[in-house]
Design a protein that fits this description.
By secondary structure, the protein is mostly beta strands. The protein has two helices and 20 strands. Helices cover about 5% and strands about 55% of the residues.
């Protein structure tokens, strides 16, 4: 009888463990293809590149029902380069996301860890790059983070339940600098609405001296820009008519005392004077048409105005980006896509690297004010 009871107890424990494991999901994306850039420092280049329409990743997420509509949750997500096997996001093990939290059906969800900000959560889905197109379709230098160039460390985030299509939330990332609560600190707020054919989103983010310390909200390897202050605001709308979805997005990015940023632009330093501020205004029109359940095509046009203020004068450069994409799904998990993007820089010359065209994700800075990039890729989800 003791043996039977012991055996039954062991089987019960194993069954309990198996039941708990059903709440954990392993998932991932491998996005790998060939890129051609017509002008990388004056020469063309062909590259095998990973993670453009979507970043290649491996993730684990799960939840536990705590009763009374409350549950515990976690998510850890690794980014990697499928062409080399290297870790992404500066070599972090779980560089895309690493969070734990509690979720209530009536009061919302609170999470802690390395997370996406409100621009990514609420505004980016209105853009082409933050929804169906990816990296190549980003606004110049991804100046508004709608392509999630960086994540927020040491962060606490709240997301409300959805009320008749409306949701809101916010995030605070601690700088963790003794005696200075504002250094390398980030906070953001956002809201979205989705009902029938209409969806809309808006967000605001405030960053203070990010990338200046290793343990703050944004590390030096994460930071898209280095500046005393960075403020981002944007709003967008999508409307679906039959098989077509049309969208418009406006974003504004203000940098105070910027010194540089981006993997290819180490400095914005002018020939004369000192740069005091750099401002971007992005206007995006996007369209997507679902020809069949398996095939869609999309297009964007983005016009970006900037103001480059120095101690000896200012300049107003401009960017025009045109992008086209076609995607065919062999199944729910596997598709192939083709993308092409053209960029032209105009307006005033700044005397800095901003005068050279650069499509995010292309081979590098162009040797002049024009650049074209094309990508053909295979994507598999699991």
């Amino acid at each position: 009888m003791k043996k039977i009871i012991l055996t039954a107890g062991l089987l019960s424990g194993i069954a309990g463990m198996a039941q708990a494991q059903t709440n954990v999901t392993i998932y991932g994306v491998i996005d790998l293809g060939m890129n051609y850039t017509n002008n990388d420092g004056g020469k063309s280049v062909v590259q095998l590149q990973s993670g453009y329409a979507q970043g290649s990743r491996l993730g684990f997420k799960g939840n536990e029902d705590l009763g009374d509509g409350l549950s515990a949750l976690f998510q850890i997500e690794n980014g990697f380069s499928a062409d080399t096997g290297k870790l992404g996001q500066g070599g972090l093990l779980f560089g895309r996301q690493a969070l734990v939290g509690l979720s209530s059906k009536t009061t919302g969800t609170i999470t802690l860890g390395r997370q996406y900000d409100s621009v990514v959560d609420y505004l980016a889905p209105m853009t082409a790059n933050g929804n169906w197109a990816g990296y190549l379709f980003s606004h110049p230098l991804d100046n508004d983070n709608t392509d999630n160039s960086f994540r927020i460390n040491n962060s606490v985030k709240y997301a409300s339940p959805t009320f008749s299509g409306f949701q809101f939330g916010g995030l605070y990332g601690f700088g963790e600098v003794a005696g200075d609560n504002t250094k390398n600190r980030t906070y953001s707020l956002g809201a979205s609405y989705a009902n029938g054919p209409l969806s809309a989103g808006l967000a605001y983010m405030n960053l203070s001296r990010v990338g200046t310390t290793a343990n703050g909200s944004i590390t030096p390897t994460d930071a898209n820009f280095l500046a005393d202050k960075q403020k981002i605001f944007g709003a967008g709308i999508n409307y679906t008519i039959g098989a077509a979805t049309l969208g418009f997005v406006y974003t504004s990015t203000n940098l105070t005392n910027p010194t540089g940023g981006n993997a290819y632009i180490n400095s914005f330093a002018p020939v004369l004077g000192t740069l005091s501020s750099l401002k971007f205004r992005n206007y995006e029109i996007n369209a997507k048409y679902q020809f069949t359940p398996a095939f869609y095509a999309g297009a964007i046009y983005t016009y970006t105005q900037a103001k480059y203020d120095t101690t000896v004068g200012n300049a107003k450069p401009k960017w025009s980006n045109l992008g086209l994409m076609a995607d065919y799904n062999f199944s729910k998990r596997t598709d192939v896509y083709l993308q092409g993007v053209y960029q032209k820089v105009g307006g005033d010359l700044t005397g800095s690297s901003l005068d050279q065209a650069y499509i995010p994700g292309s081979g590098g800075l162009s040797g002049n004010d024009k650049q074209f990039a094309i990508r053909a890729a295979l994507r598999h989800k699991f």
